[in-house]
Amino acid sequence: MDFYVLLGVERSASIGDIKRAYKRLARKCHPDINPGDRTAAGHFRQISEAYETLSDPDRRRRYDAVGYSQSTIEETAFGFEGFDFSVSASGSSASTFGDLFAEFLHQGGSDSPAAVPVRGTDLHHTIALSFEDAMRGGPQTVTVTRQEHCRTCKGLGRLRVVESRCVPCHGSGMVKSARGHMVFSKACPHCSGSGRQRQTRCPTCDGHQIEMRTEPLTIATPPGLDDDARIRVAGKGNVGRNSGEDGDLYITVQVQPHPLFRREGDDLHIVVPVAVHEAALGTKFEVPSLDGLARVRVPPGTQSGQRFRLRDRGVPSPRDGRRGDLVVEVRLVLPRLLDERSKDLLREFGRINGEDVRAGLNHHKGHEGHEGHE
Ligand SMILES: [Zn+2]
Ligand SMILES: [Zn+2]
């Protein structure tokens, strides 16, 4: 619907023309003059929006350019009943309808019986676990500050009081407000127009239904949690309002690294130093594991970097409880200092084992352009 047509003015109409046209029409189709007439109410809403748009130079320019207006008025949030609409025809200082709307639109809140349920927001928390605690699992205590139902009003936002006359409206159920030359009366927000007061805004939470509370929560953690794992604790986020659902609490787990074990999936890796003679002749030793010491047998002729897998000695999977393996990697270490006797023994050893350990390199001779010297 064209706003100019609605108001019955020329496209070149001045602000004064628009205001006069609006007031003339508003008096004709105001819902108070036409009680119960939905057509009149709808028409009133349209001319109000037209006036809102065309009386604002910026919005009018945009409307002229695009040909339509993005309504800023929420249609459903507002009823027109209860106005006492007396307009002075010559009044020019009347504020725009937007200002008038603002007051009514801000009434809602928890006092209103039609308050919409609001889901509580989720909360996020981080806990640090030692490697052992993460592997073991079990109860962990976290201290969380969250929005809870106000204890004074049990989350209702209001308290019942002995019925009495509503003070702000003196029991009339209506309050008046003036804007320039217009006087409005509307249902008293304190008693919803009844003139009687049976409940009062909760003084503890000021009607917001909630209070902040810090309390320890005990959380069951499954065994085998990995670094950055996330646990969801349903319903332990911020509390919902107007019977809305409670939010959830998400806990991110930070697992401290272990000095010996490195985790890969559900396997644990450990590096174990082995002396030359042990690797050559074979040996047995014990390594730490999640279940105490575990025996490892290293066969004769073991190479540095060789791995031995101990089945089911790894991490219990937090999903199905099945365990990974413990992977033992041996690393050959030479004695730091060699005495003369040891050096002699090694020279003797070299003479006896004359095998060329770099024989494999010969296959790649020339690849890099190094022919070696002959
Ligand atoms: Zn009242
Ligand atoms: Zn309260």
Structure description:
This protein is an alpha+beta fold and 374 residues long. It has helices spanning 3-7, 15-29, 38-54, 57-66, 97-105, 131-136, 276-281, 340-352, and strands at 123-129, 138-149, 158-165, 174-179, 182-187, 196-201, 210-221, 229-233, 249-255, 262-264, 267-275, 283-289, 292-298, 307-310, 326-333. Among the domains are: 3-106, Orthogonal Bundle (Helix Hairpins), CATH 1.10.287.110; 262-346, HSP40/DNAj peptide-binding domain, CATH 2.60.260.20. It contains eight helices and 15 strands. A four-stranded mixed β-sheet has the order 10-11-15-14. α2 runs antiparallel to α3. It is elongated and about 120 Å long. Residues 70-113 have low confidence and may be disordered. Bound molecules: zinc ion (2 copies).
Keywords:
3-stranded mixed sheet; Helix Hairpins; HSP40/DNAj peptide-binding domain; elongated; 4-stranded mixed sheet; binds zinc ion; alpha+beta; 374 residues
Assembly state (oligomeric): single chain
Helix content: 10-25%
Strand percentage, roughly?
25-35%
- Provide the CATH superfamily of the domain at 3-106: DnaJ domain
Count of runs of 4 or more consecutive helical residues: 8
Bound molecules: zinc ion
Radius of gyration: 41 Å
Name given to the CATH architecture of the domain at 3-106: Orthogonal Bundle
Give the terminus-to-terminus CA distance. 100 Å
Parts with pLDDT < 50 across at least 5 consecutive residues: 70-113
Shape: elongated
Question: For the report, how would you describe the main beta sheet?
Answer: 4 strands, mixed
H/E topology pattern = HHHHHEHEEEEEEEEEEHEEEEH
CATH-derived topology of the domain at 3-106: Helix Hairpins
Strand order in the sheet with the most strands: 10-11-15-14
> Structural class from helices and strands?
alpha+beta
